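Re: that chain you flagged

S.,

Sorry for the slow reply, it's been a week of failed gels. I finally had a moment to sit down with the sequence you sent. For the record, here it is as I used it:
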Amino acid sequence: MLGALPAQAHDSADGSGVIGGWSESAGAFRIASSEAAPRAVSHRGKAEQKTISGTTHKRSHGWTTWVGVQHYTRARLERGSTVVADSGRKWGKSGTEAVTAWKPYRPNQPGNGVGTAKTYYGK
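Prediction finished late last night. Pasting the structure tokens below so you have them in one place:
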């Protein structure tokens, strides 16, 4: 599913360089105002969970394949306009991977406990 980027979801203050990404809540998206995203780009993201010392933790994990093109992947946990965890932009050519730190996750709390997993790619 491709959709528009939610207004509050971008990987920097102005969203510069972002072409698209993935959201745990909405699936894949592409920014309508960005240059046409080439078909050669493959991007995926996922929310991961594991138990650490008896407490469930969550992180965001993203991968982008864009052969021969300098690009980045970024993973974040976001709650509204608050960034809970951020991998930063991971740059490379061909394949890039980004992952946030593990954060304690309380799924029964409002706001998904620790936030929503989101990943971004761009150049």
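What I noticed first: DSSP finds no helices and eight strands in the chain.

Talk soon,
D.
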